[in-house]
Write a structure and sequence with these properties.
Blueprint lengths: L2 H7 L4 H13 L10 H58 L5 H11 L6 E2 L5 E2 L1 H11 L35 H11 L1
Antiparallel strand pairs: 1-2
Helix pairs in contact: 3-4, 3-5
């Protein structure tokens, strides 16, 4: 039941009720449906402050998430570029390139590296076309078939014989690596 209805039930007229309501408004007296409005206001202010704090932390988390996504995209792009460069270097090496770095420079300068793509399976597509183009445009940078002895490309590390003396110092990096793996 509202104050207006209570006053009406007590026998006040509409004019008297309106005068009382106006006087209450002028003096800052308001009616509320809660028992202790000050306590309710304090609770609502505390809840509001808590929500603001949570919103701030959520915004910070969102910034971190966006930053993480950007970092992941950058790393994926670097991996893709690394795969492309590695595939091009392997292709040039197998084709008998004399100076792989020079040919890679020429391919990048000509924009031919950008034509290489990584498919959905993670394989680089277009390497053969790149190598063929470089062989055509820079034939002097490749060993001819008659110049190339049958030299297999190393794909692993050889182990030293067990009879090798372990106290001998290796003379090159390959021997040092082979000695390290032979000990294991």
């Amino acid at each position: 039941m509202s104050l207006k209805e209570i006053l009406k039930s007590q026998g006040y007229t509409e004019e008297q009720i309106q005068t009382i309501m106006n006087a209450m408004k002028e003096n800052g007296i308001f009616t509320a449906f809660v028992e202790n409005p000050e306590e309710t206001i304090r609770k609502l202010q505390a809840d509001n402050e808590q929500l603001r704090t949570e919103m701030g932390s959520l915004q910070e988390q969102k910034k971190k998430d966006v930053s993480a996504v950007e970092t992941i995209k950058k790393l994926q792009d670097e991996i893709r570029k690394g795969k492309i460069e590695t595939a091009a270097i392997i292709g040039l090496t197998k084709a008998g390139a004399l100076d792989v770095d020079y040919l890679m420079y020429k391919a990048e300068k000509a924009g031919e590296i950008e034509k290489l793509k990584v498919d959905e399976n993670g394989k680089v597509v277009g390497t053969e076309e790149l190598v063929n183009s470089l062989m055509k445009n820079h034939a002097a940078q490749f060993k001819s078939a008659s110049d190339q002895p049958e030299v297999p490309i190393r794909a692993g590390i050889k182990k030293l014989d067990k009879s090798a003396v372990p106290d001998e110092e290796p003379t090159n990096l390959e021997e040092a690596i082979a000695q390290k793996f032979s000990e294991e």
